[in-house]
Amino acid sequence: MSRKTFAARAAATLGAVAIGALAIFGTAVPASAAGANIDASQTRTLTVHKHERTASNGTTPGTGQQITDANKKSALGAPLAGVTFKVQQIADIDLNTTQGWATVQNLTAQQAANRALAAGTSVVTNGNGEAVFSNLPIGAYLVTETTAPNTVTDRTAPFLVTVPTATGKAGAPSNTWVYDVHVYPKNATSSLSKVRVPAAAGTAEAANADLQRWSVAARVPQIASNDSLETFSVVDTIDTAVLKFLTTDAPTGVAAGGTVSLTNASGAAVTLTAGTDYSVVKSTDGKTLTLTFTQAGRTILAANKGGTVSLNVLTKAVAVPTTTPAGTVTNNASSIIKAANSPAVTNTTSATATVASFQFFTYSPVTDNGTTTKSPLANASFEIYPSKADAEAGTNKIVIDGKSSWTTDANGQYTFPVLNSGTYVIKETNAPVGFELPTLNIPDTTAGTGTTYYAELPHNQQLPTWALPFTGGNGPVLFATGGGALLVIALGAALVAARRRRGAAEIAA
Q: Which residues form the Gram-positive pilin subunit D1 N-terminal domain (predicted)?
């Protein structure tokens, strides 16, 4: 057998090394390029196609050929941009010799890393997930994934590829040389998102206008079957100057924060047991709420790859932030996920809510010499409602810091340090001494973002000096009617007495 023929057949055995090595495409299938010698005049390239691992891809052995079939391309998974690959030729292996092919045939990537290597070239995958290495000499190459975006939880292990590569029996055509070599390594990825969850109208949570609920969602990565999860945690971080975590201390009727749920890739709920599968711990300084999965919990996660872990967080606003933009509170979250065969990966995200300060002012307009001033009125009591209809019906009363009724001070004011931005209706329930309650025709008051918003409530109607103050309804009207009746009776008695005196005088005369 000639050296060239042997070289071709040896290469045939090794042609799919890059494709099968270290489980990139599954187990390598022996290939042959029988009767075909390497054509040194051919232009040689290596294209790395980087895609996201799914539950179904990454199991079919490759041939070194480019995948052009539309159905097969759609099954590759989402392309991954921003992944850096380094390709280094193994300098002490000559594939123009039979010995070179014999050496490569039993070589592992780990062994190759300890041999003489060329400096190599690094290329970052583009938007299509492709990194192209052009004008490569005939040879064996070590391919290493050196950097990847934070969403990548397990990097592709280093692998070997020969240029050219033999297609083997699975190729089309089979058993021939491929000079434009294509490989399709896969990565598991994770994602992290966070949203503000509005309270449903009419609930106790909606009535507590200083509460905010958040949902943090972390996707379980599709790690390789021969890999495992060493770490899976989610951390929620707040600024304690403006927010406070509520876990077991949520107001009555409001669901506690710090709860955890898991759905599989199809969206079906998966049972988790607190204390056994995970823990949720609030730091002693109140700044973080940390979800950590135990070994038992990570086993459940590994059985539900592609699923979603959700951490439910409840906070209470304690102050209006003064940072720009004013009134915007930011809630940050991060996840730390580590597969056994890869570095730990940290993802970060955030969500915001808006809060404001709110003040109402009661006064009596006083006009003197044509100038009107606002004389503050103390001891006016108020309730707040989300709508005029609620105010009229007395339903869905707003609660702030556990209180649902407030009274103005000597300056005629009451200030709420912080509440969620929104539209509210103020209902006065007790007027200052000597004044009637105003009608409920009060316009909605919008508390926007950041600064203090004001609602002024003038009291133009004083009670008559002989009337006692009432807190509402038609009490004053009834009292005035009764007083009038008393006056009529008194007047009648006086007339009778006068007539009697006149009659007596006439008789005496």
A: 42-187
